[in-house]
Amino acid sequence: MSTGCPVTALFKNNPIGRLLEFQKDPFAFFDKHKPENAAIPVELNLGFRRFFFCYHPDHAQHILQDQKHKYNKSSLVLNKIKALSGPQGLIQLVGEDAARVRNTSAKLMSTDGMDRLIQKVDKFVEEIFPIIDKAIENNEAVDLVPHLTKIVLRTAGVFVLNHDLISESEKLNSAFVDLNRKAGESLRSIAECPFFSSKQKSLNTIHTELDRIAEEVLKDEEPSLLKAMTLRNEEKPFIRDQLKAFMFAGYDTTASSLIFATYLVAASASAQQSIALEAEKKLQQNYDSLRKSTFVQSTYKEALRLYPSAYFLPRETNQDDILGGVKIPKGSQVFLSVRHLQRHPDYFENPNEFKADRFLEDLKHQFSFIPFGGGPRICIGAALAKLEATLVLQKLCERYEMQTVYNRPPTIEALITAHTNEPLPVIFKRRDRYVS
Ligand code: HEM
């Protein structure tokens, strides 16, 4: 006799049921429908739409590089995040407008620009040392989530506005988290999400704060995205959408990846030791020496491989295509599971294991590691994210030994991006060399 819920049974294995499944837990959905042979995309109807789920690095190469002209960003997903990323923000733009904004922001990531940001991040990290030292004295663990999140928000503020968002951090953080949650829920729902009043409230908070700060800092001589866009005589609403797009795309992703990376490093005494030794050998604290710190770079990549915050890439076909032998009609939604292809056993030995030195060797497949996407719309902020995360890891490991309180992988919640939805308590001890 079946003990299952009759309502669940009614929707089992049909388009509505699958949509409800995806809505409930996209991570579990991707896992459940992964075929034995990941080389073949899986065709599934969800609600009234046709989806293809892809799990193989060859699919990533096909979609992002070889046949990129047949794949647009998914209009379904773009619509869901429009309020968050700004209707004219880079994420939504195409053609000449997109190229112009990409070009302007890429210039800010020159070596000089990055050296300036390193100094700021360095200071932001040092500000959490007294909190950690106090916790050591009191034999207490420190929940790193709020501290790491604040470092990332402050860095985003410097890049986008040349403004330290310290006093706005709590307000802006809750507005962004709220909107990300709403967008995630909306992406997963059958019908369009109604315009929640709290969504409007969070949007208003972001608009008001960005407009106020932009007005205040406009006369600054220091470089920022705001300054660069203003010098190009872009229209005000266009500029505000870029500020929003960069905050949205860069803040939450970087914070999540840094939290996952710190968790993995805190659980591995040998990774901490190697990062500290490498940091000790650095001659200078600058962008060049950070990029040459190959161990910490490898460690961060390994964290991004296991826990990509952009866990899937959504695309839509603008013409018929054939992918992995399967016909993909024009107008289909094609979702590439970054998390699965980055754990493909043909390309990574013991793929579910954290191996901090894994990326000291070359990749076996260029598209087996794509945490920042690929092709013409590859993440424009990847260098900044790497700078921040690797510098934070280095500075923590140089000064402290860390131990996680929980002896298990972090729990993950899949919204528009993947998050840990729990604290990250870490027990610290000063590294001997630094004990005064
Ligand atoms: C670990 C951190 C980050 C991850 C995992 C990440 C991931 C991604 C991915 C996968 C894409 C491509 C999406 C697609 O093709 O559909 C993307 C695009 C983008 N990212 Fe990042 N990103 C990160 C950090 C940043 C930072 C720090 C910034 C800003 C400074 C940023 C700004 C952007 C923008 C503006 C786009 C849109 C580019 C375009 O459409 O031309 N990202 N990001």
Ligand names: protoporphyrin IX containing FE
First-last Cα distance = 70 Å
| CATH-assigned fold name | Cytochrome p450
- Number of helix segments? 19
Overall geometry: globular
> How much strand?
5-15%
**Could you state the CATH homologous superfamily?**
Cytochrome P450
Q: What's the mean pLDDT score?
A: 90
Report helical residue fraction: 40-55%
CATH architecture: Orthogonal Bundle
- Widest sheet: strand ordering: 1-2-8-5-3
Taken together, the total number of domains comes to 1
SS-derived structural category = alpha+beta
In terms of per-residue confidence, which ranges show pLDDT below 50 for 5 or more consecutive residues?
190-195
Biggest sheet overview: 5 strands, mixed
Record field, number of beta strands? 12
